Amino acid sequence: KNVIYDELMSVELATLENLRLIGKFFDEATAIATVEFVGLREHELNSITDSLVAMNLELETFAAVAAHDLRSPTATIIGFADLIVDEQDQEQDHSAEVAVMAVNTIKKTAHRMLELIDQLLGYAKIGKEHLARTTFSLKIIASEAKENLTAQIQDSKAIVNIKDLPDYSGDAVLFCQLFQNLISNSLKFKAKDRTSEIVIAGTQEKGRIRLHVKDNGLGFDPKLSEIIFQPFERGDQRTGVQGSGLGLATAKKIVELHGGTIRAIGKVDEGAEVIIDLPTVH
Predict the structure, then answer these.
(1) Where does residue 153 fall: left (phi above 0), alpha (psi -120 to 50 degrees), or beta otherwise?
(2) Is the pTM of the predicted complex or chain greater than 0.70?
(3) Bridge partners, residue 273, by sequence
(4) CA nearest to 184, candidates 218, 220, 148
(5) Which residues of 1-21 are buried (b: 16+ CB within 10 A; e: fewer)?
């Protein structure tokens, strides 16, 4: 009996020791998992905080520049309205002529202001909704964009040549806007001493589509290659070309929503080329 009792006690003690070791193991594993989990959550929270700070800074910058750009045409409208009132009060002989000039300037400025507001709204809305992905011909979409700009192309006496382009799976409406913005930008910065020529071409390789939009216009200083895609940046101010600076910024936003990249190369008075790389699967 004593032998059996001793054996039972030995087994019980061994079991208790094993349970103690198992408990210790789980306690240590739980402690390690807790530390790792807390660290991971802190990293995620820090990442989210950094993203929010960056987004808030971008929003503040966007709002400040937008307010600045809207202030200028508003001041012009007020100034010319005051001029009409002053001329009428003084009853000068040429007041009617001045009034007509002032009213025309007000109308022109107001239209420019409305255009800027529409572009602001368009830029802000991109990405707020899910992409309506379909498979479409990039050549057909580029041709639609060209057709939408028929009046501007004819006024500029420009030649827009659309080469063979592959099919793509993305948001067709946004891509039409993308091509319109790029064609419009080339028309805006056309050279006065030669016929404006714009060529849209593309190639497809495994896993990637590359698009080229090339013109023979005024070009730009290579130092500005990054800046021109930022909202409200107008590139080389020496060209004297008016614009909102949102065309290329919107193009960049559309490309990035599709997981692609966009860049530009050019030289002053030697034209410019926009190059877009798109993943075929995103």
Answers:
(1) alpha
(2) no
(3) 214, 265
(4) 148
(5) eeeeeeeeeeeeeeeeeeeee
